[in-house]
Design brief:
The complex is a heterodimer. Chain A has three domains: 49-84; 90-108 and 220-286 and 293-434, MetI-like fold, CATH 1.10.3720; 110-212, no CATH class. Chain A is 73% helix and 0% strand. Chain A has helices at 7-30, 45-52, 57-84, 88-91, 95-100, 111-134, 138-159, 166-185, 190-194, 196-212, 224-251, 258-270, 273-287, 297-322, 326-334, 339-369, 385-389, 400-429. The termini of chain A are close together. In chain A, 32% of the residues are buried. By secondary structure, chain B is mainly alpha-helical. Chain B has a domain at 80-154 and 258-392: Orthogonal Bundle (MetI-like fold). In chain B, the strands form three sheets. A three-stranded antiparallel β-sheet of chain B has the order 1-2-7. In chain B, a hairpin with a 2-residue loop joins strand 1 and strand 2 (171-174). The termini of chain B are far apart. The relative contact order of chain B is 0.12. The chains are: A mainly alpha, B mainly alpha.
Chain lengths: 434, 393
């Protein structure tokens, strides 16, 4: 923590300094050595343009060259998006396939299941936001909202391109639900508030059960953006405990434990994700006891992704652990806390708080990495273009650029909005500035 | 009320409450559990391999590979081991071009994001924010299918800028060198020239330190190298000659073929990695103390001199660990080549797995090969890091 200097003496000092300066200024004005030039000429748009675009000959050349390149790129993009692009491969029917894949309805599930799961997660988010507000922790409530804001705008933007308005309305209803729950949960009785974490976890499990209709094997038929999100969210949530344990193990002073954690982290980080996915696809069954049936392809992929992400989360959490000042542990020792309590009550809460932005970064890179599932034949957002382009009316007509561009855009919107949110969160939490 | 004084003896508590004993007991239990898990997995693999009548060791590496490898002299009868070697060098070909190019582009873009010119800044930001937020795999797909094969003309209408190169959707052909009979001694001479150049540069550095004369070591190095190389060229009677690709109908002669999957993969990866490196460079430059910049300005250094002699050397020190991790990433991402059909180790692995090699051993070989890259890069980065850090103290 930076030291807070008491207000009054400092400002008194400042006042003295200021009066001295003013006297000097008066003296200078009375006996001018240098003529009175304003240090900064008047601002405004014209000035900004001169300063930033045409400051010198070299600057002017740069402006012209880069302006021409930028204008050309913008022009080409605009022509492609508005005129030459054949977007029927996205909006004339297949949009739903991009979102949930083309085998989703074979499970007997409906879109209502997805919306119900989303709403349950919204309730969880509202609960967390409301509880942290009731703790007087306004910052985290607001930042939670800010994290959500950008992705919601992105979702609404994509959904508003469908023919009907229902999805957009459902999203807006979700936002309203969030605020309602947030308002209500701040007024819940203490007994409930204290168990908010447990309730959130239970609700998340319920959301997953609703989404899969109580049959986790159903996710083998998920596809498109839904699969991308389920796999990456599942991966980050499941890998979190592994990451925390491995980070603690790597930082511990126990000579028999540390090498295990180091070996796990460095081995996993040394190989590409694709090799682990291949392992899950082709070699997983060999590691199971003889006679047992290996879980479904997507489940195996999630297991491998969890193992993979666990190593990276461990490094993120280790960074968080290192950022906890040594005085904290020393103070806890002085209070006579056991090692376990010290970790659980003093070190971990601070360490995890500091690693939130990096964890979001990890989630973003995991989301990008899920596109690798296409290599083992799964139809996530990238892979789903394959069945779409194989449809009778799109086949062999060179629709691939449009389909890829749309997939690219969705990935970009999600990753960009989340990385912006994480940057804001970082400044808000003051990570690295304390 | 009198409280009985606690016993002041330093007698140790019973062993089931002794922290030191418990610590070791806990560690041993965990270690045994991990070892048991590993043994269980190993045992499962052995049992399953026997049940599926697959061999246990790594003998499959000696079996014939059974298919061609495009762009190499590999014969199908050669063993799988050799195929992995070819794939290994193809992976190296990607990173050998990708790492230097990504570093240069990354530094340029990173600096451009700190430019005084608003448009240059905007351009840098656009580059970084667009590329950083799309998955590398999608970007490779886009590069291969849209930017390259989608835009390049068929071979009969190939682009031939200045008659020096041929661009077509079958491949890119660039001017290259062709070795004569005395190629090896000439290459050795060039190596000798480079070594002599380095010695001369070191000598110039010492002269500069002793007398303060300008060292001009790069110039000296290049001149020394050029003289020795030119001498070698004439002594060995013109051991290399340039060849320029020429097209006659559908046939291309001379030059070197860069197949499209290699071009797409390398280009996509280096552009993607450059966007990450740009952010690292920008962060590192911003982390250099402001006074350094101001002092450089006060000495009236030009922008180039300011970056070259003041800012970048200091920023470089901060950059090394994250740069090393980006180099690792580009190496690992080169495995994405499978989607465009470039023949590196992951592709070899895929072929081998389809040809009924034992899956657990095949994947272990693949992982081990990637680990050699990762450990190599980490090792080099650690050495450089230690060197630079010692210098500053």
């Amino acid at each position: 923590m930076s030291q807070q200097t008491p207000e009054s003496p400092a400002s008194a000092d400042n006042d003295q300094v200021r009066t001295a300066l003013e006297q000097d200024a008066v003296a200078a004005r009375n006996h001018p050595i240098i003529p009175d030039i304003p240090l900064r000429p008047a601002g405004g748009f014209k000035h900004w343009v001169k300063q930033n675009l045409f400051g010198s000959v070299k600057d002017t050349v740069l402006t012209v060259v880069f302006g021409a390149i930028l204008a050309y790129l913008l022009y080409r993009t605009a022509v492609y998006v508005l005129i030459s692009g054949r977007w029927e491969v996205v909006f004339d029917g297949p949009l739903l396939v991009y979102m949930i894949g083309n085998r989703f309805f074979q499970t007997g599930l409906t879109l209502a299941h997805i919306w119900a799961a989303i709403y349950i997660l919204v309730v969880v988010a509202g609960l967390i936001a409301g509880v942290s507000r009731s703790h007087g922790n306004v910052t985290s409530a607001r930042t939670a909202l800010k994290i959500m804001a950008a992705p919601i705008i992105g979702v609404v933007a994509v959904l508003s391109m469908t023919r009907t308005i229902t999805p957009t309305l459902l999203v807006l209803a979700g936002v309203a639900l969030f605020f309602a729950v947030r308002w209500a949960s701040a007024r819940l009785p203490q007994a409930v508030l204290r168990r908010a974490g447990l309730i959130s976890m239970a609700l998340t499990v319920v959301a997953f059960l609703v989404l899969t209709g109580g049959q986790p094997r159903n996710i083998d038929r998920f596809g498109g953006l839904l699969l991308t999100v389920v796999v990456s969210a599942g991966g980050i949530v499941l890998s979190f405990p592994i990451g925390v344990i491995m980070a603690l193990a790597r930082r511990s002073s126990m000579p028999l434990i540390r090498p295990i954690a180091v070996a796990y982290i460095e081995l996993i980080r040394g190989v590409p994700l694709i090799t682990l996915l291949f392992m899950g696809r082709f070699a997983f069954g060999f590691f199971m006891p003889a006679g047992t049936r290996a879980p479904g392809v997507i489940t195996r992929a999630i297991i491998m992704i969890t193992l993979f992400t666990g190593a990276y989360v461990a490094e993120v959490v280790r960074g968080g652990l290192q950022s906890v000042p040594k005085g904290q542990t020393e103070a806890a020792h002085a209070l006579g806390l056991s090692q376990l309590k010290l970790t659980r009550l003093i070190v971990l809460p601070q360490a995890l708080r500091n690693s939130i932005p990096a964890l979001i970064g990890q989630f973003i890179s995991l989301l990008k990495d899920t596109s690798l599932l296409v290599v083992i034949g799964l139809q996530e957002l990238l892979g789903v273009t394959e069945p779409i382009l194989a449809q009778q009316r799109f086949r062999f007509q060179g629709y691939q650029p449009e389909a890829l561009a749309f997939v690219c855009l969705i990935f970009w919107v999600i990753c960009f909005s989340m990385s912006r949110a994480s940057q804001r969160l970082e400044t808000r939490l003051g990570v690295g500035t304390r | 009320m009198a409280v009985a004084a606690p016993p002041t003896t330093s007698a140790r508590p019973p062993f089931w409450r002794d922290a030191r004993v418990l610590r070791w007991a806990f560690q041993i239990v965990v270690l045994l559990a991990v070892l048991a898990l590993l043994y269980w997995l190993y045992n499962n693999v052995v049992t399953n391999l026997r049940a599926s009548r697959l061999p246990r060791g790594f003998g499959f590496l000696d079996q014939p590979y059974g298919s061609d490898i495009r762009g190499s002299a590999f014969r199908p009868a050669q063993p799988i081991r050799d195929a992995f070697v070819v794939g290994y060098f193809n992976t190296i070909r990607v990173i050998a071009v990708g790492i230097p190019a990504a570093t240069i582009i990354g530094i340029v873009v990173g600096i451009s994001r700190l430019s005084d010119n608003a448009l240059v800044r905007a351009f840098g930001t656009l580059y970084v924010e667009v590329l950083r937020n799309i998955p590398p795999l999608v970007w490779i797909f886009l590069t291969y299918f849209v930017i390259l094969t989608g835009n390049l003309p068929p071979i009969t209408e190939a682009l031939e800028p200045l008659g020096l190169a041929v661009f077509s959707n079958r491949g890119i052909y660039l001017p290259w060198f062709e070795g004569g009979p005395n190629l090896v001694p000439f290459l050795l001479t060039m190596g000798l020239g480079l070594g002599a150049g380095v010695v001369v540069a070191a000598w110039r550095t010492r002269v500069n330190e002793r007398t303060g004369q300008p060292h001009r070591r790069v110039l000296w190095l290049l001149v020394t190298f050029a003289i020795i190389a030119a001498a070698g060229y004439f002594i060995f009677g013109g051991p290399v000659a340039g060849t320029i690709p020429g097209r006659e109908g559908r046939l291309i002669q001379g030059g070197i073929e860069v197949n499209l999957s290699y071009a797409a993969l390398t280009f996509a990866l280096l552009m993607y990695t450059a966007s990450h490196i740009a952010e690292i460079v920008r962060g590192a430059i911003l982390a250099v103390h402001k006074g350094q910049n101001e002092a450089a300005n006060a000495l009236a250094l030009t922008t180039f001199q300011r970056y070259r002699f003041v800012i970048l050397p200091q920023a470089f020190r901060i950059m090394i660990p994250p740069l090393a991790s980006q180099y690792l990433n580009i190496t690992k991402n080169s495995s994405l080549a499978v989607v465009v059909g470039y023949y590196e180790i992951t592709r070899v692995y895929q072929t081998v797995t389809n040809n009924a090699a034992p899956p657990p051993q095949a994947i272990i070989v693949l992982m081990a090969l990637y680990l050699t890259f990762s450990l190599g890069i980490s090792l080099i980065a650690n050495i450089i890091n230690r060197r630079l850090q010692l210098e500053t103290r």
